[in-house]
Design brief:
By secondary structure, the protein is of the alpha/beta class. It has four helices and five strands; from the N terminus they run βαβαβαββα. The strands form two sheets. It has a three-stranded parallel β-sheet. The relative contact order is 0.14. The mean pLDDT is about 90.
């Protein structure tokens, strides 16, 4: 019998005044309502720098958005899933998540695996999470990356 699959996506949400805000919400609605797998998208507001120079002093710099707190949400999701699933696959190279992965492996019953993009010709393209004990890592190449791109145009 096939097992139920869930995909949890954690990402930053642009400020409501920026164009990407509506597109992110439309993409979330599409992903969560389509397909045979359950997708859950969790947004955390991006943090922005304020412009200091006149005449835009005090406005947000739209190019300065940074994710804050997403690694904590992902860590909690991994630990929870390790106690409620048979298999957990984490797609990340954020080393802040290693303690959560190791804890999930020690205390949960799920098999824990990781996946990462593999692009040996790009700086950082060989990175993967290293845990003790070692987790299986599936490296995804450029062809898989291109095939995973969502080409939909969200309004």
């Amino acid at each position: 019998a096939a097992a139920r699959m869930e995909v949890h996506v954690h990402r930053g949400l642009p400020a409501a005044s920026l164009a990407g805000y509506g597109r992110n919400l439309a993409q979330q609605a599409h992903w969560e309502s389509s397909g045979t797998h359950r997708v859950k998208v969790s947004h955390s507001p991006l943090r922005y720098r304020k412009i200091q120079e006149w005449p835009n002093r005090g406005r947000i710099d739209p190019n300065s958005g940074r994710e804050k707190g997403i690694d904590v949400a992902v860590a909690l999701d991994v630990v929870d899933a390790a106690h409620n699933a048979d298999l957990v696959v984490l797609a990340s190279v954020d080393t802040d998540l290693v303690p959560a992965l190791e804890y999930a492996k020690r205390t949960g019953s799920a098999r824990i695996e990781t996946t990462s993009w593999f692009a040996p010709d790009i700086e950082g393209g060989r990175r993967q999470l290293r845990t003790t004990p070692v987790s299986w890592n599936t490296r995804l190449d450029a062809a898989v990356f291109r095939a995973s791109i969502d080409h939909s145009h969200y309004a």
